[in-house]
């Protein structure tokens, strides 16, 4: 599925209490190189993916526990980004964030 990328950094799955499906949403953060970062988004259990460029390197992704379109992304530089549309658009939320202190 991701043949030309140097590394696949993160895979996160989201399940919904309302859904009988084991996995509805899959986000894969990938890097071609240090400059070109991508997020692959699947909302159909991995049958298909949409590529979304990122302006930062995501180290950790955290889904909102109740609102599946909301995602937090922590990057190595200590910045925290938020997406309200499942990773299609990101907004810098805060700088100088400690990795172990990320939560909704």
TrEMBL record:
One of its GO terms (cellular component) is membrane. Pfam families: Sortilin-Vps10 (PF15902). Keywords: Repeat, Signal. Residues 35-99 form the Sortilin N-terminal domain. Residues 1-18 form the signal peptide. InterPro entries: Sortilin_N, VPS10-sortilin, WD40/YVTN_repeat-like_dom_sf. Transmembrane segments: none annotated. PANTHER family: SORTILIN RELATED (PTHR12106), VPS10 DOMAIN-CONTAINING RECEPTOR SORCS2 (PTHR12106:SF9). This is Sortilin N-terminal domain-containing protein. It comes from Hucho hucho (huchen). The lineage of its organism: Eukaryota, Metazoa, Chordata, Craniata, Vertebrata.
């Amino acid at each position: 599925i991701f043949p030309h990328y140097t590394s696949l950094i993160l895979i996160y799955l989201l399940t919904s209490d309302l859904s009988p499906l084991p996995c509805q949403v899959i986000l894969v953060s990938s890097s071609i190189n240090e400059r070109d970062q991508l997020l692959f988004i699947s909302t159909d259990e991995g049958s298909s993916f949409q590529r979304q460029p990122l302006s930062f390197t995501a180290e950790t992704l955290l889904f909102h526990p109740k609102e599946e379109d909301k995602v937090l992304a922590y990057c190595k530089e200590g910045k925290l980004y938020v997406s309200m549309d499942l990773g299609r658009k990101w907004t810098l939320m805060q700088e100088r964030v400690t990795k172990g202190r990320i939560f909704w």
